[in-house]
């Protein structure tokens, strides 16, 4: 019922000939993007650990800070630079540790199991 109502509203926005038609289309695109972000987030939560999701969120924040610095030419203080460096090294450390653990688990699964005969 809700989906039918939403579809009707989208069609009404797209088909209307108002001045704000372009704004309505942008709102629909933005809503669809938010919906897809939620779908991807649920899929990621299902297939990873909460710690990995948290690390991903922190990496996203660092990326937003770095893009903000580049786009808006924000002055970077010494403390900010150290904080970004420590955060990036922590993310790299976690990624390396996670990769090594996965490699170790795969090598243990691929080793043949040798049973000793009873004497």
What report would you give on this structure?
Helices cover 82% and strands 0% of the residues. The protein is mainly α and 119 residues long. The chain is flat.
Largest sheet geometry: none
Number of strand segments: 0
Q: Compute the average pLDDT.
A: 83
Shape: flat
**What pattern of helices and strands is seen along the backbone?**
HHHH
Helix content: over 70%
The computed structural class is mainly alpha
Query: Helical region count?
Result: 4
Tell me the strand percentage band. Answer: under 5%
Query: In whole angstroms, how far apart are the ends?
Result: 71 Å
Unreliable stretches, pLDDT < 50, 5 or more residues? none
Radius of gyration, in Å, reads 24 Å
């Amino acid at each position: 019922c809700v989906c039918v109502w939403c579809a009707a509203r989208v069609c009404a926005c797209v088909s209307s000939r108002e001045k704000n038609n372009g704004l309505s289309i942008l709102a629909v695109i933005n809503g669809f993007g938010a919906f897809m972000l939620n779908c991807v987030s649920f899929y990621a939560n299902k297939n990873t650990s909460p710690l990995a999701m948290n690390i991903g969120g922190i990496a996203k924040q660092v990326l937003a800070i770095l893009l903000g610095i580049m786009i808006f030419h924000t002055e970077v203080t010494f403390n900010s630079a150290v904080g970004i460096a420590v955060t990036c090294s922590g993310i790299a450390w976690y990624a390396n540790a996670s990769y090594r653990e996965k490699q170790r688990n795969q090598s243990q699964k691929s080793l043949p199991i040798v049973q000793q005969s009873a004497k």
